Hints:
Strand content: 15-25%
Helix content: 40-55%
Order of helices and strands: EHEHEEEHEHEHEEEEHEHHHHHHHHHHH
Amino acid sequence: MIITIVGAGNSGCANAFIAAENGHEVRILKTTRGTAHDEHFEKMQKNGGLWGIDNTKSDKYTDFADEGEKTFQKIAMITRDPQEAIEGADVIMIFIQTQYHEALAKKIAPFFKRVQLVILVPGYLGSIYYHRHSIEKPLFAEGESTANDARIYEPGCVKILFKNVRNSLSYLPADKTNFGQEIAAQIFRTYRDTRENIIATALHNPNLIVHTVGMYALKPMMDYCAKYHPDEVPSMYRDALGTDFAWAVVDLLDKEKMDVLEAYGCERIPYLDACKFRNEEDLSKNSRQVFENYKVITPPGPKSFNFRYITEDVPYGLVLLSSLGSAMNVATPTCDHMIEVVNRILNRDFYAEGLTLQKLGVDNLSKNELLDFINHCTLP
């Protein structure tokens, strides 16, 4: 298949490398200038492809050392021209931070064709923006987590750190799920399962819980180290998510997430069980222990509270959860409290900045009308 990867950062390049390795004709589209990864992008253009170090092949799930073999994958097209990159592609995969979906949709969606599959990772309901701005209406899909996790090791080279065992997708409209899944399964072997709809995928994005609660619990540790141990950097995964306080908040927030899922007719699946399903082949293992095993491979940090774990996953995860709950009269007090605390710390208003049903243009729909749109792309 011809696969266009939108986004030349860590996730985009990781998935471009693996897709090319799997035998697909891959294109990479970068739609910005003067931002992150420009040097990396220009190096890929010069090389005509992408170098990769796949540490997962030697079970070295880390980016602390250059342990894996360095190999090269040719990339058929590396461009900043959306029309050129999208024309003739079978699949468009979008790997950008969620807050840029609306602006990107205006730029690239007019070039989509009805026969294409467009996959957003992460989605957080962003496919609604692309549907709105596309002239022809392709099939959209949303993922809750990237199939292949990586870091740009040096300009022109990406290091693959982690591969999920399973990745669930949902489709817009949901009634095209079986058709879409037949295509997606040809891209990565991990596309083995589906969610009921894009609401389920949005709320099963693990970062909605792990990033927000992890940073919420990390903030006092960051403040303490900055004052008394400035040479130490506490770890969100190892330290903050090793406390009873963090897991008490996880339990409260997770219950609110499941209450909202249930209100929209979706299955109640706890955070840890969803993590195990993504990360572990043996589903008989204890879910908490699977998470603890994953924690071992994570690096220290982040060093700043004003980090994308907060600035993306609070306004586009927690605020969306609150909005979805409010529409169904489902209370989300833990979620709302966390948003208020973060607002106070950063002196921002994430309710105003974040993603809501109103910003998506579907706040005037009843529950049944919203589900009709999500399931069939029909509007009253």
